[in-house]
Specification:
It contains 9 helices and no strands. By secondary structure, the chain is an all-alpha fold. It has one domain. Helix 3 crosses helix 9. The protein is globular.
Length: 194
């Protein structure tokens, strides 16, 4: 079944759309609050298809992510009782507890590391609000870490450019199904060790 090739082609097509920068910013903004898909999914193909705009895309992604992070911070600060039920219902309690422990241990440094963590960024933004972290250091650290990550992703994608886009396209079914298989194995290992 050739599923991932179609998705890949559609993503590359959308990455060249004239409103792609807006959609990238929107995804980045809402990902820092509640959306489960990271902006890298759009940033990578956009940077590959238009390498000369890669840094601009990294800036868009960073600004939108930091603005979304501020909203996430506000939710944690002002409306945590309401959000706690959502965190539990979405199955994110373990990630949330882990992030809270990291905040207690590392303080503002964890916001920097969160920019590169596999744990969803929204968990860290909400935790920062719950912990009532000082606002300005939170924003500055979030901006630096998010820009470092998105700049790196954008530049590496731009460096590969169209030639790697073609190579990835030829192997996308193998990559896609291998990722699904890995996720299923990881899920079973996680549930068995719980």
């Amino acid at each position: 079944m050739k599923l991932f090739g179609t998705i890949y082609d559609k993503t590359m097509e959308w990455s060249k759309h004239r409103f792609a920068g807006f959609w990238l910013s929107l995804v980045s903004f809402i990902e820092a609050i509640f959306f489960p898909i990271p902006p890298d999914v759009m940033l990578i193909p956009m940077s590959m298809s238009k390498p000369h705009l890669a840094v601009r895309y990294a800036v868009y992604t960073t600004l939108a992510s930091v603005l979304g992070g501020i909203i996430g911070y506000g939710i944690g600060y002002f409306a945590f009782d309401w959000v706690k039920e959502i965190i539990t219902n979405w199955g994110m309690q373990a990630n949330f507890d882990k992030a809270m422990n990291w905040f207690e241990t590392w303080g503002v440094a964890i916001v920097f590391l969160a920019g590169f963590s596999p744990i969803p960024y929204k968990v860290f933004t909400i935790c920062a609000g719950v912990m009532q972290m000082t606002f300005l250091p939170f924003v500055i650290t979030a901006a630096v870490s998010r820009f470092a990550r998105f700049y790196l992703v954008a530049k590496l994608s731009a460096w590969g450019g169209e030639k790697y886009a073609d190579k990835i396209r030829r192997s996308i079914e193998i990559i896609g199904w291998a990722t699904v298989a890995l996720a299923v194995v990881a899920y079973f290992v996680y549930t068995l060790t719980k």
